[in-house]
Write a sequence for this structure.
């Protein structure tokens, strides 16, 4: 009877340890500061610099707005 209680306690302890380990690994590592958000690209039409995340893309070219995307690259 006492042996069974010890086994249950050991299993509960192991379960809690695994749960804490799984939750700990889920937290993202501290960012180095230089992410993709800081990356600036130039509009193919007017040359305006803007974050890549805000750019409008068409056929591999980046644009600052839908208007310039429709106008296409400046030749
Ligand atoms: Zn533009």
């Amino acid at each position: 009877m006492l042996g069974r209680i010890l086994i249950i306690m050991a299993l509960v302890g192991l379960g809690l340890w695994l749960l804490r380990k799984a939750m700990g690994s889920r937290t993202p590592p501290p960012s180095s500061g230089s992410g993709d958000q800081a990356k600036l690209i130039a509009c193919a039409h007017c040359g305006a610099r803007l974050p890549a995340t805000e750019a409008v893309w068409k056929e591999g070219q980046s644009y600052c707005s839908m208007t310039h995307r429709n106008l296409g690259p400046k030749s």
